[in-house]
Amino acid sequence: MPKNAHLEAAVTPAAQLAGFIAKLDPQVARLLRAARAALRRRFPTAIEQVYDNYNFLVVGFCTSERQADCMVSLAANAKGIILSFYWGATLPDPTGILQGSGSQNRFLRLKSAAMLAEPAVEALLAAAAAQAKSPLPATGRGYLTIKSVSARQRPRRPAE
Fold first, then answer.
1. Burial class of 106 by CB neighbour count within 10 A (0 to 12, 13 to 18, 19+)
2. Rounded distance, CA 45 to CA 114, Å?
3. Sheet holding 80-85: strands in order across?
4. I want to staple 24 with a disulfide (CB 3.0 to 4.6 A). Which of 13, 28, 54, 143 is the partner?
5. Nearby residues of 28 by Cβ (< 8 Å), 6 or more positions away
6. What domain range includes position 50?
C-alpha cells in the first residue's frame, strides 16, 4: 500500500470536484457552481458524473452511471462554460438557440446561471429528460461520482 493511500481514499468526490473547480478562473468557477446548483435542483435524482479531462472539466447529469445516459452536462474551460445536450441533435429547438452540427451533441454558451430558467432553455432541459433512454428515478437523491481525471490538461485559466 502506498505511504499516503489512506489519505487519498478519504477524499470525497465532493472534495475532489471542489479542487477541480478551484483550478478555474474565479468568474468561471462561480458560474459553474451556480449552474451546477440550478441543475441539481432541476434534476435532484440525477447522477452527477465528473470528467476532469484534457480540454474541459465536465459535470454530466445522468439517469444512470452509463455515459450514454447523460442528459445534459456543464463543460468548463478557460474561456467559459457550455451547457451541452448529449443527445441534442434530436431535441426540438424551435428558437434555434442550440449550436453545433455534429451527429449527436448540441450546446449553448452559458453566460449566467439565470439562463437555465429562460423558457427556451427550460424547454430543452425538459425535452432532454423526457427523451432519456433510462428515466430519472422518481424519488430519492442523486449522487456525485468522479469518472476520470486526466494527468495532462490544458490550462484552466486564461493566459495573462
1. buried
2. 21
3. 106-110, 80-85, 70-77, 57-62, 47-52, 144-149
4. 28
5. 76, 77, 78, 80, 81
6. 26-134
Distance of CA 46 to the CA centre of its chain: 11
Our count of domains for the chain comes to 1
Bigger pLDDT: 128 vs 3 = 128
154 in any annotated domain: no
The three three-digit cell numbers of residue 154, written as one number: 490544458
Do the beta carbons of residue 52 and residue 73 sit within 8 Å?
A: no
